[in-house]
Design a protein that fits this description.
The chain is of the alpha/beta class. It has helices at 18-34, 81-94, 110-123; strands at 48-49, 62-66, 72-74, 77-79, 100-104, 128-130, 133-134.
């Protein structure tokens, strides 16, 4: 009926998996929280394309977005059309020669995306790359 505190049988060789499960669950929660933060720029539905150009991995582009309600975004910051060139120029002063990656929603007309490209050129962008979603 009673239990013994120290029998002469030696060391117990059972694996205690409870700490392992705790660590794995904590890591799972951390990844679930961090993953949505990894996306840069505003979330838009990108147009689909067949053959994207090879992407250079060495440079970190400045992500500029335009949503269906025609709001301009620099990274995750909402800016008005009047402020856009000024804010973008300030980013180029901080890091000259930085590339611009434009994320335009597929529901937009070409003229709206073109307007954003023109503003980026006036702000000092050397070139503007368009983000697409690859067709499967």
């Amino acid at each position: 009926m009673g239990f013994s505190a120290g029998s002469g049988k030696g060391i117990k060789n059972d694996i205690n998996v409870t700490p392992l499960v705790d660590v794995v669950l904590v890591l799972l929660i951390i990844f679930m929280v961090i993953t949505p933060m990894l996306q840069r720029g505003k979330d838009v539905h990108l147009p689909k394309g067949n053959h994207p150009e090879a992407e250079e991995k060495d440079s970190d582009p400045l992500v500029v977005s335009i949503t269906t309600d025609k709001k301009f975004w620099i990274e995750a910051n909402n800016v008005t059309e009047a402020q856009f060139e000024e804010k973008l120029s300030a980013e180029f002063v901080k890091q000259p020669g930085r590339k611009v990656l434009l994320k335009g929603d597929e529901a937009l007309e070409v003229g709206e995306v073109r307007k954003l490209m023109d503003h980026a050129k006036k702000a000092g962008a050397k070139g503007v790359e368009l983000a697409i979603e690859v067709k499967k």
